[in-house]
Structures are given as structure tokens and as C-alpha cells.
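Anyone else keep sequences and C-alpha cells together like this?

Example one:
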Amino acid sequence: MNNSDKSRQAIRRTIKKLAPAIVTALIATGLGLLSLYTSPVPMIQDFGKMLTIGMVVSLVAAILILLPIIFLRDSIFHKYDDKKKVRKTKNNNKFENVMKSIAVKTLKFKYIILAVAVLTAGIGIVLDQDVNVETDIETFMPQDTPELLDIQELRDIIGTTETLSIVFSDSDGIFTSENITWMIDMTNDLQAEFPEEVVGVKSLTAMLSLLSPAPLTPELVDQLIVNLPDEQLKMLINEDQTTGVIIVSIVDLEPEDTEAFIDDLGEFLDASGTDMDVTVTGQAVIDVEMITALTTGRYLITLVGMLLVFLGLLVIYRNPLKAIIPLIPISLIVGWSGGFMYIFGLEYTPLTATLGALIIGIGTEFTILIMERYFEEKEKREDNDEAIAVTIGKMGKPIIASALTTIGGFSALVISDFEILSNFGIMTLVNISLALLSTIIVMPAVLSIQNNVINKFKKNKPVEVKV
């Protein structure tokens, strides 16, 4: 058999052995990323779409580009490779032995390792509840950007650049006596009701009060409004005179304080007794809604991702145990990641909120490949722990190489001037490192314990005697 025939045979064997595991891992990764579509934040949905597209493109490139390149390499440079084959084999054996020894030591303390892993993950989940969520776009930018410095200087001069809009509407028109009285009262009472938050109120009645030294009344408003230019009127009411707006300038508040103020303002407006439809809107309201979406949505994304991966693996393997095993080591990372962010004072952003789905997608790829090889090795050996050690020895190198290349790719984000990208890069590196650690250390313990449980169940299962 010449070298080309050997290369063809090797490629066929590679596809035959690895294709099922890789396709399964690809499906699991895709299902994990599919959970990003459940997010109410459009940018997170788009991020999920791009990750899914990139994953499919990578698989196609590996089949149509990588394998032909490897075949050509073996065909052209086989003489040079033959001289280095012995040395490579020795190096591979050394690395395999190191990985095997790690697996053997891990299996000796498997119960302790799994208990510590679960405990620390649980603590991390509790601490994760106190991790702040950052949605202020100004914090995402380089802090020395001239445009950002200009707006900060403007804020120092005028006191605030934050506003809320109170939109009110009445299909019969807003210039009834009751509605005008409500506008006058709101303009006068808002700053008195919220002296620490409200620094100014701009409304139609506030503008008209500048034209008259006398206190405003509904009749006086009707007289003064005809003197206002249409351009100024359009800033505060629509052409049909059925909808108006009161612009409230507020101090720069923390997200929690902003949410509390909006709730209090809503209650104040509800108690005002107007029959008009009144809505509070503005950038501050959007920020609060985004914080809520990111805070509650990231847990939903993670849970949906795990459920989808489990159901997908259940359909593929038709075995609940095989469907749940790859998820156990990866689910722990969710808690570890939250604990890391809490300890080091990192905050969730629209990007880092996607890490749960991202790590489920990437991490299950590692654990599925380990599990597939483990069951293959188990068929060849009676000793379960030996099968696990051989699996880690054989698969350790490609999994570590895959993790390191992923880490290398995301490392570029760490040096970004944009803090949102830098933090995302840092947490991605941390999570991939944790996924690698969990795959190499926790996964062997899970495989060994599940085998012990199954064997114990089989021994205790009563044997039916047929008469």
C-alpha cells in the first residue's frame, strides 16, 4: 500500500470514527446557542445567529478544506514526515501518559472532586444574584473619547442630560378643561413631589406660563396658545392635538434608583385622577427594561439551552443517561462563572449575559467527545477506570488544543479599548478555561460514578426465574 492509499484510508477511518461524535457535538452546540433566540434583546438574538452561522461554516471548512490539505500534505511531504514519525510518537506517548496520570489521580478522589465542584458551583450561583448589570452605553466606550468627554462636560454645566417623557393622550383632544388642569398640576407638582430626582420640567403649560405673569387657568391657556408658533407647539403636542408630552429632566441615577423612581412616578401618575392614557417613556425606561431582560433573561437562556441540549441528545442517543452526562460538568461552570464575576467585581453587559448559552454550546462539545470515546474504550476493556484513563489520554491533546485555539481567538478582545468587549473577552477566556478544567477533572469523576451506580443497580435488581 503506497502513501496515498494510506492517506485515503486514514481519512476514511477518521470520518467514520469521528463524524458521528462531531455531528452530535455540533447539534448540541447549535441547540445550546439556539437558546439565545429566547432573549428579548435583539442584539443577543443576532449574536446567536452569527455564532450558529460561524459554527456551520467551520464544520464545512473542516470537511472541504482541512481534510484535502492534510491529504496533500501526506502525499507530498511523506518522506520528510517519515523521518520525524518516531520522535512524534514518543512525544505523543509522553503527553498521553501525563493525561492518563491526571485521570488516574482524579479517579482516586472522584467523590471529593465532584462534591467540591457542586458545592462551589452552588455558592457561585448564590453570589451571582448580587452581580451588577451595566447597560450605560457610556461605560462601554473608551473613557478618553472626545465625544464622551464633551457630553460629560455638558452635564457638569447644565446639571443633567437625562430625561423622561410623560406621554398623555385623549382621543377627544387634550385641551379640555380637566386635561389642561391636569397638565398645570403635573408641571407644578412633579419637582415638588420628587425634589431629589427631578431638576426641571418642560411642558406646554410651563412654556405658556412664561407669557403670563398671572397663574395659569384653562381659560388663560386657551387664550395664550394661539400666540405660540407652530414649531414650538409641535415639540410638545401633535397636529391633531390628541397627544402631548411632558419632558422631565432628572439627575444621573444608578440603575436601581432609576427603576425605583420610575415605579414611584408611575404610582404618582396613576393617583392623579386623569382619564387620559398616560405613559412614562424615555432612554432611562429602556435601560431599566434592558436590565430586567438581562437579569432575568440570562437565567432563562441558560436553562433553555440546557433543556434543548438534553432533548437533542436524548433524541440522538435514546438514552437519558447519555443525554445528561455531558451536561453535568458544563452546568457547574454557570455557578463558577458567576462566582468569579462577583469576586473580581465584574458586571454583566448585553454581551456577557450570553455566556451561559455560549459555554453550554462550547463545553458540551468537549464532554460529548470524551463520552463518545469513553464508551468506545469501555467496549474494549473490562476495567472501567482504565477505559476512562485511556480516554483522557487519547482525547486530552485534541481537546486542550481546541480550547487553546478558542482562547487565543477570544484573547484579541481583551486588549480592546471598549470595556464591553474587553470584559466579554476576559469572561470568555475564563469560561473556556473552566470548561477545559471541568472536562479533564470533573468529567472522569462523573463517568466513573455513573458506572458504579449502574453496576450497583444491576446487582440489586431481582432476577426473574422462569418456571
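And example two:
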Amino acid sequence: MALTDEPKRKPLTPLGWVLRIALFAVPLIVAGVLMWQTNARWQNVKIYKTAFDYELEYAKLGVLNSQFYVAEAYDNGFQTDVNKAEAVNWYRKAAYQSHAKSQYELGQHYLDGEGIARDDAEGFRWVQKAAFKDYPEGQLRAGQLLCEGRGVAADCVKGVELIEKAVGQGLPAAQAEMAARYERGEGVPKDAVKAWVLYALAHEALTWEQKEAPPSADVARVEATLTKAQLASAKTQFEARRPKREKPGKDKVAAF
């Protein structure tokens, strides 16, 4: 054999092939396991704080607006899981600080049995507190409960008075509620003209920003029962009560 000739290599045995594969595979497997363990370790660890985290810290210190923020976050699942019981807990804390919307929301949770056992009397008590602070949604709900006799002795005269206060604040839901009562004569004498005016006001409040507002089925239904003179009177009343609004255009933005 010449000096320059290389010796022939023996073919690898099956064991040799296994060892060679293991030489490359084992480090990759070990690295993968370490990466998986690291990921699992950090999976539930926050590396930054959300707005909810900051507000929760302030809420625990008794800051009113933060308590309400946290309650709504738990109620709606904003930056945290939905937790109706915790929502009730934080609405209650804010409600005890005389926060009208929290009082209303706490009352609604009692009435709906969300996050707490249903209790109509407690529900009425809390929405009434919101109504006393001139919170329109509270006035509407307390008025409805008085008319229904739910959680309180029925007194639709007082109920209608509260709903009318919410109407005076321009709450579309209250306007629609009173319109329906005037149309059917529930708690008030039947008055198709007033029903038309209030339905029209509620519809206008909900659609005024739209380029082409759809017609209101409620307005059309009541209008079919009016004489020409009644309709003219209704339209005059509507225009007198209609809020002056400016639709957003090229150089205008909507007010939020």
C-alpha cells in the first residue's frame, strides 16, 4: 500500500449510528426542555402593569373614581376576567361614597341577581339613592319599579314623576318610556300627541348623528292615529323641545 493511500474506513455499526445521532439530538432536546420550563415559569408572571392594575392599587386606597373603574372592569371583563361578585364588591365601596352611577349599578345587580343574590328591595333602595342625586338612569329605573310595585309598594303617581324628571334631562330611554305610557294610558291619561312628541324626541336623540336616520316605527304608528291638526301641534311641540345640535362635518367633531 502506498504511503499516500488513506486507510479504508470501516462502515458504522448500528450502535455507532445511534451514538452519532444521539450526539446531535440530546443537546437539542435538553435545550428544548429548558426553554419549555422557562416559558412555563413566566407564563403567569406579568412583565408590565395595565391600567387596571394601577387603578386597583388606587381603589384599595379608597380613591372613588378608581373604585368605580375597577367595578366596571370586573363587570365587563376589561383587562381582567369578568367577575360579577368582585364588580358588586367595588360598586358597593363606591356607592357608600355616594357615587350615583355606582349606586345605580349596585341596585341593578341586586335586581338582576348578578354577582349577588337577587333582592328587589335592596335593588330599589340603591337605584332610588341614585335618583335622589338626579342621576337620570336612576330616576327612570326607580320610577319603573314604583309603577311595577317591585321591591317597594306600588305608587305609579310618584313613579311617573321620577320618569318625567329623567325625560327632562333628555334621557332617550325615559322619553320612550313615557311615550309608551301616554300611548297606552298607563299611569297617565292617554295622549297621542304627547306620545308622538316623546317618541320623536327619543328617536332624534339616538339617530341625529346619522346621515340618513331610519324612520321610527313608534312615531309612524302613533302618527297614523292623529288628525292633521294634532300632527301639526305635535310637530310644533317637537321643534320647541328639540335640542339644538350641530352635526359633525369636515371641520367639526362630535362631542363625547
